[in-house]
């Protein structure tokens, strides 16, 4: 069974073709700069080499047609015929309250996704464009939506409601939704395996640290709180997003600068976070280099980010009561040992004792690593995420009629004998 996974952004499409029986990625690629001059596709061929082709892509439909041409390329393509694709899974960032699990897409589902697109204006519109374009290009294949927000739909009211007029929740759906759900799901189930415990008896704090950052409190295997909120803007300091701020700052700056709503939105989402503090950098590697060269604002950005993440750990320890382990994942979580060390500074009173050597050695996108001492009461692991595997498994389970939701579903990576396969 071959599954095509699609992740459609506003100006890009990322795809992966996965052969379920062999648990193997056949090919993956990215179409970038859709609707912008200089668009191109880059992808891996069946021989494992990389190929890049520049071609004008004015819209997502053209981009997906370009993807199909690459998949069917007689010399280097991964498919002989599109009929080999059993289903297409679509990443959808925001599912609102309606979607608590992955679902087979029909017109009702598309309309429901559209109805909450104002909650994720940067993400849901391109997700919808991708779904509709894929349905046009591949109309005879089942299409399935996998939602970033679904994993967090287990949160209790006390965690997801804001202390604003209650009517806002009923009228407009104003509440905490959370994101990066497939990532938190994957690493939490893997952590349970490593700990030798069933997920239903495991309490964890999972930290997805990439350009976007979210922290999740997991009690008895399910999400009970998470740092991102109504949108992916709330929470920790991120590459270009502010994270938590005093809401009055927005009113204050509107009064001072006369900003329009669109300008404030752009500033908080694209010009804040690490970029806002440093004034130059959003990539932590650039920030580290500048900090080591004496740049004070880069040094400050490192301090602010790690301090805020450390506060989230403390608050989630309080929320959970007992914590079995903490997990770092995603780009910086997996590769940036200096950031991890900074985040975990001074947490010995919480039972977290870092092993410096183990932490410095843990810089891999494949290997799962313990980075605390053997006698640390709370274990800390670096677990590379695999959102696509969650994605594909949901799609296959839905096709085979054995999927209810993530809470009651057992994934292949929960098997103690599971071995991660490199792409």
TrEMBL record:
Biological process (GO) annotations held by this record are: acetate metabolic process; acetyl-CoA biosynthetic process
- Cofactor binding mode and count: Mg(2+). Can also accept Mn(2+).
E.C. designation(s): 2.7.2.1
User: Catalytic site residues?
Assistant: 148 (proton donor/acceptor)
Reactions the enzyme catalyzes: acetate + ATP = acetyl phosphate + ADP
Note the site residues: Transition state stabilizer. 180, 241
Q: List ligand-binding residues for ATP.
A: 14, 208-212, 283-285
Q: Where does substrate bind?
A: 91
Give the record's family classification. Belongs to the acetokinase family.
Q: How does it assemble?
A: Homodimer.
Please describe what this protein does.
Answer: Catalyzes the formation of acetyl phosphate from acetate and ATP. Can also catalyze the reverse reaction.
Q: What is this protein called?
A: Acetate kinase
Q: What organism does the record attribute this protein to?
A: candidate division WOR-1 bacterium RIFOXYB2_FULL_48_7
């Amino acid at each position: 069974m071959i599954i095509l996974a699609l992740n459609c952004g506003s100006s890009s499409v990322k795809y992966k073709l996965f052969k379920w029986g062999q648990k193997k990625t056949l090919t993956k690629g990215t179409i970038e700069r859709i609707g912008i001059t200089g668009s191109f596709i880059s992808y891996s061929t069946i021989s494992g080499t990389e190929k890049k082709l520049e071609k004008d892509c004015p819209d997502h439909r053209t981009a997906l047609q370009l993807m199909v041409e690459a998949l069917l390329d007689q010399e280097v393509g991964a498919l002989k015929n599109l009929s080999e694709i059993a289903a297409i899974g679509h990443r959808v960032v925001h599912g609102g309250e309606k979607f608590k699990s992955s679902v087979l897409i029909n017109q009702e589902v598309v309309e429901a996704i559209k109805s909450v697109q104002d909650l994720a204006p940067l993400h849901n519109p391109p997700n919808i464009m991708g779904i509709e374009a894929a349905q046009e290009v591949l109309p005879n294949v089942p299409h399935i939506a996998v939602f970033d927000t679904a994993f967090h739909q287990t949160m209790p009211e006390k965690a997801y409601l804001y202390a604003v007029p209650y009517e806002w929740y009923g009228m407009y759906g104003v509440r905490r939704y959370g994101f990066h759900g497939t990532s938190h799901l994957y690493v939490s189930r893997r952590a349970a395996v490593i700990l030798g415990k069933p997920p239903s008896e495991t309490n964890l704090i999972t930290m997805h640290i990439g350009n976007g950052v979210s922290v999740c409190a997991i009690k008895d295997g399910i999400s009970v709180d998470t740092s991102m909120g109504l949108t992916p803007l709330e929470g920790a300091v991120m590459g270009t997003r502010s994270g938590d701020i005093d809401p009055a700052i927005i009113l204050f700056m509107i009064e001072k600068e006369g900003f329009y709503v669109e300008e404030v939105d752009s500033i908080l989402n694209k010009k804040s976070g690490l970029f806002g503090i440093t004034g130059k950098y959003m990539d932590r590697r650039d920030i580290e280099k500048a900090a080591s060269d004496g740049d004070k604002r880069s040094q400050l950005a490192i301090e602010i980010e790690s301090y805020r993440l450390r506060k989230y750990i403390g608050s989630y320890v309080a929320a959970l009561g007992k914590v079995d382990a903490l997990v770092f994942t995603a780009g910086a979580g997996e590769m940036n040992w200096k950031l991890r060390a900074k985040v975990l500074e001074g947490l010995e009173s919480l039972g977290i004792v870092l092993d410096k050597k183990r932490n410095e050695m843990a810089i891999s996108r494949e290997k799962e690593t313990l980075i605390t001492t053997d006698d640390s009461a709370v274990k800390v692991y670096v677990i590379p995420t695999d959102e696509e595997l969650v994605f594909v498994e949901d799609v296959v389970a839905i096709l085979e009629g054995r999927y209810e939701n993530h809470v009651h579903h057992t994934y292949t990576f929960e098997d103690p004998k599971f071995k991660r396969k490199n792409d």
